[in-house]
Design goal:
Blueprint lengths: L1 H21 L4 E2 L1 E4 L11 E4 L6 E8 L2 E17 L2 E16 L4 H12 L11 E11 L8 E9 L2 E14 L2 E5 L3 E4 L24 E10 L1
Parallel strand pairs: 1-11
Antiparallel strand pairs: 2-9, 3-5, 4-5, 4-12, 5-6, 6-7, 7-8, 8-9, 9-10, 10-12, 11-12
Length: about 220
């Protein structure tokens, strides 16, 4: 009996180590209830997002491995006052979801599953949205010069999230890039395969954290 228990403990330990190894990289985004959106200053300039040059990279993982992919924006704008970003609004086109680490057929199967009711239910919720509520300066971090806070709406659920970013405002426009960070999908009603559910076998669970990395430009 003790030997059996030892094997169970060993298998659980291996699953835990594998899960940690495959978990998406980056700090977890701070999540709270939706924040009020301030009106842009009258002097603020609105710059249109270049959707062709803007992209969201995602990573999803489980004990057995992980998958990577991209999402595109359908529209967006950035509010700028002087050399600072003061606001912005971005619409994410969920139908642009792609998987980048699998052959075409398998990638299509994965995206099909992620797009159905188990996960993001793209036919019902074709877009997600992020609205900037606040940008604050950061010092001493080579990967990020600011914290970006905003309301993320996904599947009709809105939460405030905060993440680090490197933003540059110049005469030719704005560029924003982020280090890797993660968002808990279950905060937005995407619970399929979560270890939080009683009927999910823990060593088969899909990570609650989605890894994200953003590159954006506007002019």
């Amino acid at each position: 009996m003790n030997t059996f228990k030892n094997y169970l403990f060993l298998f659980a330990l291996i699953a835990l180590v594998a899960s940690c190894k495959n978990a998406p990289k980056g700090e977890k985004a701070m999540t709270s209830e939706a924040a009020p959106v301030k009106e842009a200053m009258a002097t603020a300039k609105s710059l249109a997002v270049n959707t062709a040059n803007s992209q969201i990279m995602w990573t999803g993982s489980k004990v057995g491995g992980q998958h990577t992919g991209t999402l595109g924006l359908s529209s967006g704008s950035v509010k700028v006052s002087g050399d600072k970003i003061t606001g912005g609004e971005f619409v994410i086109d969920m139908a642009t979801m792609k998987c980048t680490d699998l052959p075409e057929g398998k990638a299509g199967d994965l995206v099909g599953h992620l797009s159905n009711g188990d996960f993001f239910d793209v036919p019902k919720f074709p877009t997600a949205k992020f609205v900037i509520t606040k940008v604050t300066a950061l010092a001493g971090n080579p990967e990020a010069n600011c914290m970006v806070y905003g309301n993320l709406t996904m599947k009709d659920i809105t939460k405030s999230i905060g993440f680090k970013a490197n933003a540059k405002v110049g005469p030719n426009g704005v560029s924003v890039s982020t280090p890797d960070f993660t968002v808990d999908r279950t905060e937005f009603g995407v619970e399929y395969g979560s270890a939080k559910l009683a009927d999910v076998v823990k060593d088969k669970a899909i990570s609650d954290d989605i890894g994200l990395k953003i590159n954006l430009s506007a002019s």
